[in-house]
Design brief:
By secondary structure, this protein is of the alpha/beta class. Helix content is 45%, strand content 7%. It folds into 3 domains: 123 residues, Rossmann fold; 113 residues, Serine Threonine Protein Phosphatase 5, Tetratricopeptide repeat (Alpha Horseshoe), CATH 1.25.40.80; 168 residues, DNA Cyclobutane Dipyrimidine Photolyase, subunit A, domain 3, CATH 1.10.579. Strands 1, 4, 5, 6, 7 and 8 form a 6-stranded parallel sheet that branches. A two-stranded antiparallel ribbon has the order 2-3. The relative contact order is 0.11. The protein binds flavin-adenine dinucleotide. The site of flavin-adenine dinucleotide has 27 residues, from α9, α11, α15 and α17. Flavin-adenine dinucleotide binds next to α9, α11, α15 and α17.
Length: 462
Amino acid sequence: TPSLLWFRRDLRLSDHAALLAAAHDGDADREMLGVFVADDALMKPSGAPRRHFLAGCLSALDESMGGRLLIVHGRPETVIPRLAAQIGADSVHISADFMPYGRRRDDAVAKALQDKGIELVTTGSPYAIAPGRVTKDDGSSFAVFTPFYRAWKQHGWRKPAVSGKGVSWIDPDSVTGITRHDPDLLARPLPKGMTLIEPGEKAGLAHWKDFLDGPVDDYQDHRDRPDLPGTSRMSAYLKWGCLHPRTLLADLDGRSGEGAETYRSELAWREFYADVVHRVPESTRTSLDPVIEAMEWDSGAEADEHLQAWKDGRTGVPFVDAGMRQLLAEGWIHNRLRMVVASYLIKDLHLPWQIGARHFMEHLVDGDLSSNNHGWQWVAGSGSASAAFYRVFNPMTQGEKFDPNGEYVRKYVPELAGVSGKAVHQPWLLPDGVPDGYPEPIVDHKAEREEALRRFKERPKR
Ligand code: FAD
């Protein structure tokens, strides 16, 4: 009996447990139909960079399947049962999705399939250890990262999934009565001047091998330096499952250096945040700490202007602007800058973290609900294992410390290209003042820091 493999955030052929479950029924091999559903509920809120990258990943997947990926448009609870019945499948296979919409959608699809006597089989997830599995001795979840990380490592994970057998894809053109989409139809034109990382499993693996061949050994020292190519850039590949984190963890096995250990812990942050969302689904929208929600936040015309300056990378604070312009140029921002620009929006401009998180989700190629919204909450001081609210990043000293020669700023802020060294972080101190074409700071950091702390101190108490 054939089966159907429904691809979602697992756009790869290697280390794919659900694919193997779909392809092999015990010792017997079976034919399967590989399907991706362009679901408006997920496609519509995705900005152009993520859609563009997704379309590229789907093209790459289709190519590695010999042109046999079926892309259809519609609601999964209608499309998947219809396709499965049409090919006479007795099972539909998926990797688990733990995000709030994904869980609701999968429940609806399982029910619709059940009505047709077809089983929805879940094998594996986008994580080394599925959310909800790493628990304290009493079975409860961790609210803080460090003990989670200890327990996560102790729990351990399976080795990458390999079978050695070939798989046999059903030709989608043999399925009648459906409109087959070209991956390019899902893409949206990229904003002018934006260039994205190369999509797909092969490109992701090549990137990963390059990282393993060198940068990983210095990762612990270089990961905070946006002026150096010190991080792996695996986030978009992990987001779409072009690679499974277990593949990365297996490659790190046997490497005992500090770089490998730090890298493992960063992967664990991704798993931790997914675990938090599994436990508290509404934390993707509202603060885990309601006190932060109830604080005084800015709104109105001036707040709108400030927000726009932040989005455009024209706040007059070079390190912040370089980060925001990297987002516009690459659909990606270095982690250090994600923290700095988030802190600036929340604590210098007094805008709620949700506004920034939404903007990031629209523009990031790796936009991931749990990592993004909890990354924002970490900075806002409202999440699990957060920095305290009163930790306000100083964007000038952050720049001087992590971009010591100013190269990162000059790369993304051409108006400051003529300023040498770290002086670029405070152009208002230059003998000739701020170079032409670059704005004066829209707010005074020192004063706004005080203002943020005042609002925090005077916040409504629970
Ligand atoms: P590397 O340093 O090479 O890290 C390797 C991998 O570990 C990353 O690909 C990622 O999967 C994981 N990782 C590293 N740091 C974190 C972290 N702090 N939280 C969760 N996972 C982490 N990451 C996303 O994948 N998607 C997002 O939408 C996202 N939004 C963020 C928003 C804010 C405000 C902040 C502070 C962080 C956010 N992060 C997000 C986490 C982190 O910034 C990115 O994962 C990282 O910059 C991606 O680049 P990289 O792959 O080169 O990272």
